[in-house]
Amino acid sequence: MRLHVKQVNRFFLLATAPFIGILLCLMISYQPIELKLDTRPYIPIESMQSQTNNINDQLMKAQSTVKSTLTTLHQTSELYQKTLETTNSIVLTTKSQVKMPEYIYNRRVISKLGTPYETVKTDRISIELFKVNPGVYRGYAMKVKLKDPSAMSMSLGKDTLGGSETTLQAVRRKGAIAGINAGGYADDRKRRYPLSTTVLNGQYLTGFEASYKNLAFVGMNSYGKLIGGKFYNQKELDKLKPKFGATFVPVLLQNGQKMPIPIKWQTSPKRAPRTIIGNYKDDQLLILVIDGYDENGGSGATLQEIQNKLLQLGVRNAYNLDGGGSSSLILNGRVINKPSDGALRSVPTHFLFFK
């Protein structure tokens, strides 16, 4: 009986052991749970409703402000656009008005020259060719507007001191659109040297020589302005900053006034083919090339006739270049005038014009 009781106890212990183990684990790992109460102050529902309404009012005001601001910005943008359009219109009108005196003056010049029968117009240069025929002589007038000072230069015959070439050869060799003969020259054993003071690329080719026997220098400065006259010391010419130029005789006009023509040049030769370069008050250039059948004084124009014609055309300053058989005018690859030699003469300097 006792044995049976022991067996029962053992069985009971074995049966309850797992539950006892679980109970002990729970007791060891047990952590007390604290109950936390909300300590925040109590807000009545009425107060929350009031705050909500206040926030809603502020949002409505903000929305209204945004709408008002957007409307103002839109109106400001429209006003700016209208102002910009008005300003652009004023600028265009102003530009047009600024160009109007130039246009009117140019029309007056052209009205005296007639209708151009050949033109060249690029961003750098504008050339208009006219016929001149007052009844006593015949020739050509070429009006040139330099939009870029580099659109005109002077060439030296074959780029060699003492070298010479025709104006057509110089035009082709340099890629020019037009050209005329420039200064006088002196022969020396079949070589031709520029007469007196000559400037090329801003440098004196053979040094400065004071004016003598009514010789005058004529050329262009670095700003594309025609310069010229008699110079008795280098400083006088240096002040004008010559870029290129040559020498011949005489000065025909200065500041719209006739200059005295030397006695010799009134009669020897009396008439002749001529090449003249001058400028208007707006710095446009006018080139006259007058035809003649020889250099003996029986054809062409007198210098007095040329003076009168230049004044009639409104030219301010003008200078006589080498004439006779040297006179030549090239435009668009063609010889425009009729050289008195029957063919173009080789000379050492040429004024060239470029597109």
UniProtKB/TrEMBL annotation:
Recite the UniProt keywords alphabetically. Membrane, Transmembrane, Transmembrane helix
Describe the location of the Phosphodiester glycosidase domain by residue ranges. Answer: 175-354
Write the protein's name: Exopolysaccharide biosynthesis protein
Q: What is the annotated signal peptide range for this record?
A: none
Q: Which Pfam families match?
A: NAGPA
Its domain of life reads Bacteria
Transmembrane segments annotated in the record for this chain = 12-30
